[in-house]
Amino acid sequence: MSELPNCPQCDGEFTYEDGPLLVCPTCAHEWSPAESADNADDDATRDANGNLLESGDTVVVIKDLKFRGGVVKGGTKVKNIRIVDGDHDIDCKIDGIGAMSLKSEFVKKA
């Protein structure tokens, strides 16, 4: 018998299969086994579409972002990003603006 993964929500060890889903009897969380494999990189930085981002990637800003000194327009291409820890998880340089930190939820991989 294959060993089932612990619950991703409460880390309960008593998970069981119910058709195509895995179920946790402790917290009643249900998830698909494919979702368990995807969550292996929980600390990975992902864009607005769920694509994995890495340092050196090129991204496109998906909406206008206002900041104290102006606006980064949606559609702006940002090259050579750097992934960092924190609330704003992307450090980059934007042409005409300079160094800036962005949240990965507002970009998509180019």
Provide a short characterization of the protein structure.
It comes from Roseimaritima multifibrata. Belongs to the YjdM family. With 110 residues, the chain is mostly beta strands.
Question: Describe it for me?
Answer:
The protein has one helix spanning 33-38, and strands spanning 16-18, 21-23, 30-31, 59-61, 65-67, 70-72, 77-78, 82-83, 90-94, 98-102, 107-109. It is mainly beta and 110 residues long. It folds into 2 domains: 1-39, N-terminal domain of TfIIb (Single Sheet), CATH 2.20.25.10; 58-109, SH3 type barrels. It has a 3-stranded antiparallel sheet. It starts with 15 loop residues before the first strand and ends with a strand. The mean pLDDT is 88.
- Strand content is 25-35%
Report the major sheet: 3 strands, antiparallel
How much helicity do the residues have? under 10%
Averaged pLDDT: 88
Low-pLDDT stretches are: none
* General shape: elongated
Whole-angstrom Rg = 19 Å
Instruction: Tell me what the CATH architecture of the largest domain is.
Output: Roll
| Structural category | mainly beta
Question: Helical region count?
Answer: 1
CA(first)-CA(last) distance: 43 Å
Q: Would you state the CATH class of the largest domain?
A: Mainly Beta
CATH superfamily of the largest domain: SH3 Domains
Q: How many strands appear in the DSSP assignment?
A: 11
